[in-house]
């Protein structure tokens, strides 16, 4: 060996590290060379590899209409390579230079992943050809021999690591192992398999597999408990390059390749890398209504643009809020084959000290004291559930697991949450990893209205035990409707089981102050309630406050209404309405009072989700007792109209027309429209300088749909004064 080649060999070696023999192996993309000729020692002079069995070609049956992708439910992936699921056999054909003779010829297959492949790490897998396949274990058998070709059926292990493997065929000769040349066309992606009983993500219902693994569009429920709204989201897990982008997320999270067969580990690291806090992950969150140098969270129509931008730039994509984190996380999970669904929890508690109570402090006038109040109630919060067994927990806690990519609190030092067993949360077994106490508080906290006395004691004016987590929903299987799953998370309010679950959670360390040590005498003989009229953005509406005096005494009350513009996280931006009035409450009767809210009072400060929060407090002058109540409400936001023109046939041009009429009493400035539909068209953006009041904007886009079947078009409009404007349309694309 010459000096220069020896120097080069030295340079190629990884730098020495006293802690480990090999550098960390956590990139699916990197690879090292495999020798084509691997000699057993000195090779005799007359040795010619051409004299032995030689591989001429390997045929992978990797087209969408061919057997492998059809049987493995991977025909929708827009990817030229072979994609199969673990624990289920797939077929390949090997063409040799002469007929294969089993008596004398010996060959085997090698699947490799990453650099420094090792057998005990699952990154180097040699497969000898046998007579039969064992279920769920690596193996290969010959199914047919003809001329110079053999047909093989290959079984990947049901627990193997997932990702992109490189395939080599090795032939044994007396003096050396001869391998096929590196050929990226034979690279094989192996994914999780919810159709395989031995896989940790096995799901036994075909309709649920169709929905939670194969559906590439979904519904995000938003709004609030009084007014549930829905919009479509394009997951796009089968679109071009998305699979590579999802595998890259695991590289980014530095998850060792050997850990990538375990859905628990994958979910845990992904919940951290979906947000940009502490690891420069996929999406930068912003909740402050200013989205400079980025896209407003409400403008995104799906996950594909976000994942592809991150994959190419390696920098966090701006900006996201909870449904964006959840939408992208859902794409990641479904793309890898883990069944997943997006969940919305209405009136979600963000409890800063996880003591199962949210403290709202009132000042002397009965207004909320924003300086003292640290906890907040989100109108809604979105997270994900992923389906898997939990061999790390006692029996019975597998199934749906909560995972949440929205950065709220740190867990083991990073912004991440889950997987937490939904079953464990329901029964109060919050001792089981990961982050169950936090999720338990999100759906089970009580709201305390407190008043600070001058001497510093806290007086509880009201406790609301039913407000938090009163509705938990997801999209129904096989349709666009809403499915309520509140009872998966909690027993009915007030039942014995619910009390028992709470006591269990407290026993396992969820902090809860007992109400015995707090002074609290509720007002019993007078009830107060209020209703907010449904209204369209830009119109006036009224709030009606009703008192019911159940006693035989006359009372007078001093009442106060505070109207606030809030972020959907329940944090106040500004108080736009203050209104005080006094009320005379006659014995055994009800009385109502209307307060009119004018559009001129709220339009200038309005935030993107048109959310208001009303507090009404009333002091009964004769007894000094305080009644307090709070409600969130949302204005109706106008929608986009979508139509199509021309014939709807795969491979032929059609037109999509988006229309919007400006309903506001002002001109809309800096308007951006987005339109996408998986299988019909990639995301298109168009900017308009302004839309005058009452005028209609029309935008026509020509496209050529690629996939037949029922597809969905999704559009969004974003402007300075108006956001969260959506439209959608189901279209049936015919086969050519």
Decide which structural class fits the backbone.
mainly beta
CATH superfamily of the largest domain: Transglutaminase-like
**Mean pLDDT score:** 89
Give the name of the CATH architecture of the largest domain: Alpha-Beta Complex
How much β-strand is present in the residues? 35-45%
Q: Number of DSSP helices?
A: 12
Number of strands: 40
What is the 3D form?
A: elongated
Cα distance spanning the termini = 63 Å
Characterize the largest beta sheet: strand count, sense, and whether it forms a barrel. Answer: 11 strands, mixed
Write down the CATH class of the largest domain: Alpha Beta
Q: Which stretches are low in confidence, meaning pLDDT under 50 for 5 or more residues running?
A: 1-12
Radius of gyration: 31 Å
Q: Do you know the CATH topology of the largest domain?
A: Coagulation Factor XIII, Chain A, domain 2
Helix content: 10-25%
How many domains make up the coordinates? 4
What does this structure look like?
- The chain has 736 residues and is mostly beta strands.
- The chain folds into four domains: 37-191, Immunoglobulins (Immunoglobulin-like, Sandwich); 206-508, Coagulation Factor XIII, Chain A, domain 2 (Alpha-Beta Complex), CATH 3.90.260; 526-634, Immunoglobulin-like (Sandwich); 641-733, Immunoglobulin-like (Sandwich), CATH 2.60.40.10.
- The protein contains twelve helices and 40 strands.
- Strands 1, 2, 3, 4, 5, 6, 7, 8, 9, 10 and 11 form an eleven-stranded mixed β-sheet that branches. Strands 22-19-18-16-25-26 form a six-stranded antiparallel β-sheet, sandwiched between helices. Strands 30-29-32-33 form a four-stranded antiparallel β-sheet, with no helix packed on it.
- Helix 4 crosses helix 6 and helix 4 crosses helix 7 (322-336).
- It is elongated, with a radius of gyration of 31 Å.
- Residues 1-12 have low confidence and may be disordered.
- Its cofactor is Ca(2+).
- It is an enzyme of class 2 (transferase).
- Tetramer of two A chains (F13A1) and two B (F13B) chains.
């Amino acid at each position: 060996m010459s000096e220069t080649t020896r120097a080069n060999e030295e340079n190629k070696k990884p730098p020495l590290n006293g802690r480990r023999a090999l550098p960390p192996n956590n990139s699916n993309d990197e690879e090292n060379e495999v020798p084509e000729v691997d000699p057993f020692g000195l090779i005799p002079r007359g040795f010619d590899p051409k004299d032995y069995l030689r591989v001429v070609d390997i045929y992978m049956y990797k087209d969408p209409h061919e057997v492998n992708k059809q049987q493995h439910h991977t025909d929708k992936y827009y990817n030229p390579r072979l994609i199969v699921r673990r624990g289920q056999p797939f077929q390949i054909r090997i063409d040799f230079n002469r007929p294969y003779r089993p008596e004398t010829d010996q060959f085997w297959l090698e699947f490799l992943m990453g650099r420094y492949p090792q057998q005990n790490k699952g990154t180097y897998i040699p497969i000898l050809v046998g007579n039969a396949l064992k279920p769920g274990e690596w193996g290969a058998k010959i199914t047919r021999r003809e001329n110079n070709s053999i047909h093989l059926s290959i079984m990947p292990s049901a627990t193997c690591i997932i990702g992109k493997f490189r395939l080599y065929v090795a032939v044994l000769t007396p003096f050396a192992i001869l391998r096929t040349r590196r050929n990226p066309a034979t690279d094989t992606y192996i994914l999780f398999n919810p159709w395989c009983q031995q896989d940790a993500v096995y799901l036994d219902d075909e309709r649920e597999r169709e929905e939670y693994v194969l559906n590439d569009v979904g519904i995000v429920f938003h709004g609030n408990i009084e007014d549930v709204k829905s919009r479509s989201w394009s997951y796009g897990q089968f679109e071009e390059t998305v699979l590579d982008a999802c595998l890259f997320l695991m590289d980014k999270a530095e998850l060792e390749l050997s850990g990538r067969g375990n859905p628990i580990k994958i979910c845990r690291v992904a919940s951290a890398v979906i947000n940009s806090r502490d690891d420069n992950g996929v999406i930068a969150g912003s909740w402050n209504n200013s989205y400079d140098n980025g896209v407003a969270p409400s403008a995104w129509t799906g996950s594909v643009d976000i994942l592809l931008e991150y994959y190419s730039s390696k920098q966090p994509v701006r900006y996201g809020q909870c449904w964006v984190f959840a939408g992208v996380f859902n794409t990641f999970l479904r793309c890898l084959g883990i069944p997943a669904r997006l969940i919305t929890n209405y009136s979600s508690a963000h409890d800063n000290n996880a003591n199962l109570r949210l403290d709202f402090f009132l000042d002397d006038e009965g207004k909320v004291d924003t300086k003292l109040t640290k906890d907040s109630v989100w109108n809604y919060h979105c997270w994900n559930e992923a389906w898997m067994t939990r061999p790390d927990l006692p029996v019975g806690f597998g199934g749906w697991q909560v995972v949440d990519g929205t950065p709220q609190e740190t867990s083991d030092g990073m912004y991440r949450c889950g997987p937490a067993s939904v079953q464990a949360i329901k029964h109060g077994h919050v001792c089981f990893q990961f982050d169950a106490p936090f999720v338990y508080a999100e759906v089970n906290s009580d709201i305390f209205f407190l008043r600070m006395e001058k001497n510093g004691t806290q007086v509880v004016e009201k406790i609301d035990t039913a407000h938090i987590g009163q509705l938990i929903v997801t999209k129904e299987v096989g349709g666009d409707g809403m499915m309520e799953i509140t009872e998966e998370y909690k027993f009915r309010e007030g039942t014995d089981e619910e009390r028992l679950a709470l006591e269990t959670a407290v026993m396992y360390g969820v902090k809860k102050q007992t109400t015995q040590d707090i002074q609290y005498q509720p007002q019993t003989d007078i009830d107060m309630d209020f209703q907010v009229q449904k209204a369209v953005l830009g119109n006036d509406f009224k709030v009606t406050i009703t008192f019911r005096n159940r006693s035989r005494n006359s009372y007078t009350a001093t009442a106060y209404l505070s109207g606030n513009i809030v972020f959907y996280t329940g944090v106040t931006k500004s108080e736009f309405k203050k209104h005080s009035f006094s009320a005379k409450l006659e014995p055994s009767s009800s009385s109502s009072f209307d307060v009119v809210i004018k559009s001129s009072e709220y339009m200038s400060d309005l935030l993107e989700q048109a959310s208001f929060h009303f507090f009404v407090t009333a002091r009964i002058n004769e007894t000094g007792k305080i009644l307090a109540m709070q409600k969130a409400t949302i204005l109706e936001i106008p929608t986009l109209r979508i139509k199509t023109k021309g014939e709807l046939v795969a491979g032929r041009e059609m037109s999509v027309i988006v229309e919007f009429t400006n309903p506001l009493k002002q001109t809309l400035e800096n308007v951006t429209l987005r339109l996408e539909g998986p299988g019909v068209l990639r995301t298109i953006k168009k900017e308009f300088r302004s839309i005058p009041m009452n005028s209609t904007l029309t935008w026509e886009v020509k496209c050529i749909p690629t996939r037949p079947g029922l597809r969905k078009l999704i559009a969004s409009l974003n402007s300075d004064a108006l956001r969260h404007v959506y439209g959608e349309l189901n279209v049936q694309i015919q086969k050519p």
